[in-house]
Amino acid sequence: MILNALSITMIFIGALSVLLTIGGGVSSFILYRKWRRPSTPEEKTSLEDRSYLVLLIMVIVLVIRLINWPLFYVTLQSFISDIEGAMCIFGVTQVKVSLTRFLEFLKPITFFLIGGWFILHILDRATKTSPLMGRKLLVLSFISLLVLMDAIGDILLMIGIVPESLVSCCTTITDISNRPTRTTPLSIFGPEYARPLRGLFFITHLALIGMIGLALKSRIFRRPVLGLLFLFSLLNALLFLLSQIEVFAPAMMHLPFHHCLYCLWQYVPDSIAMYLFFILGTFSVGWGFTTDLFGKIGEASSLLPNYVGKIYWAAFFFLSASFILLVIHLLLD
Amino acid sequence: MPINKRQIILLIIFVIISLVLGCQGERKPIESRCDYDGVKIEPLYAVYFTLQDGAEKKFCSIACASMSFPALKKQMREVRVVDEPSGNKIDASQALFVESEVVTLPHVKNRIHVFAKKEDALKHIQKFKGNWVENPFFL
């Protein structure tokens, strides 16, 4: 185990999350079941009081988990000097490959669900009758399971990464000629795949921003439209990842043959802001859809268009920000 | 939703922040940085390419240089490697290359060692279960 301020923080918030999530998650599910049953006004009041307490505890846990995602990478970055052969975060991920990969996959999903849940929570709080309480509790109990896995995973990883572990770093894996991020566009566009891939990403990204702008202007917030935009944003995210690895990251790093995104964050730190904007923009499109999916009930229905509009404004803002940062970099380089 | 003044101001602030961040991101060149993966170069294991136009490329290891070599081969004028026992730069065509169980740089798992003298190379082969390998920078 590598002991530093960050790893101790990770273990501490991991343990705290486990404790609070077990209690909060189980209570959420019990309250959800009780919420569905008909009850007297007194029982209803008691149920509401208990729900607010559980929600308060879980809000604290979820905020911690939102911070946990970037903290996870900052902690891995802090381990680089203690792992022999690690030159960037990639090297650290090679110490416990399966667990790290699982956590890297789980964290964005958890982040997305927590963000979506918070929007539902805010929407519900804006109403007088709390029509979303039942759904909120149900989603919360599901999120609790993911948070629990994530927190336990964090603790196990922090304990499992042993100092002086010997690993090989990104060069031996991300730069091999048969990497899937190269072979996939190669099979579609041929050997000169970089230019079409770059063009395709620009087209999809600008199209996504344009469609969001159009939806905002004409206020088309129907579920099929929101769903299609969400799917399109996922496709755009896939292209973003592919074009970043194959085209943009090597250009931004001034290392034409190197394709490691962790190295990009290390050598060009402000690219982290670009990624952050992109993630928030893509997730905002998804949150627009999930808010419509879960929030269309009772009193909340009338507030929904206004909220979806705000979420879409955020998506428009973040995706544009990410795009501008990328363009500035390409122009400067 | 109509665009109001507040949102326009926010957008302008954002553009300014983006520009500042973007400019800050313009990476300053680091002298001892590998031209393949950007890591700090340990001079004893470095490889130097001199291109036809006089430009020089430097790499942290034989592994990184080998991966860059095919793309730069046509423009190559000279390849220099470092003799491990003495630390002197020598022409790759005159160097002896040995692969052994000793890893010079763990991050690229480089096991290829460079020697100027045959006796040094033989000593290394015997001591570390090595074997001869061809010059990876054959022009």
Helix coverage percent of chain A: over 70%
β-sheet strand percentage of chain A? under 5%
Work out the oligomeric state of the chains in this entry.
heterodimer
Report, as a whole number of angstroms, the end-to-end distance of chain B.
Answer: 65 Å
Q: Could you give a short account of the major beta sheet of chain B? A: 4 strands, antiparallel
Q: How would you describe the shape of chain B?
A: elongated
Task: Pick out its properties.
heterodimer, A: 333 residues, mainly alpha, 2 domains, 12 helices, B: 139 residues, alpha+beta, three-stranded antiparallel beta sheet, 22% strand
Quick structural overview:
By secondary structure, chain A is mostly helical. Helices cover 80% and strands 0% of the residues of chain A. Chain A has helices at residues 5-36, 41-79, 89-93, 97-125, 133-160, 171-174, 180-189, 194-218, 223-253, 261-267, 271-295, 300-332.
Describe this entry's structure for a reader.
The model of chain A has no long low-confidence stretch (mean pLDDT 93). Chain A contains 12 helices and no strands. Chain A has 2 domains: 5-160, no CATH class; 171-332. Chain A starts with a helix and ends with a helix. Chain A has helices at residues 5-36, 41-79, 89-93, 97-125, 133-160, 171-174, 180-189, 194-218, 223-253, 261-267, 271-295, 300-332. In chain A, 80% of the residues lie in helices and 0% in strands. With 333 residues, chain A is an all-alpha fold. Chain B is α+β, with helices and mostly antiparallel strands. Chain B has a domain at 43-133. Helix content of chain B is 29%, strand content 22%. Chain B has a 4-stranded antiparallel sheet. In chain B, strands 6-5-7 form a 3-stranded antiparallel sheet, covered by helices on one side. In chain B, a hairpin with a 6-residue loop joins β3 and β4. The model of chain B has no long low-confidence stretch (mean pLDDT 86). Chain A binds chain B through residues 84-87, 91, 166-172, 175, 216, 219, 252-258, 260, 263, 267-271, 273, 309, 313, 317, 321, 324-325, 328-329, 332-333, and chain B through 1, 7, 10-11, 14-15, 18-19, 21-27, 29, 35-39, 63-64, 67-68, 71, 105-109.
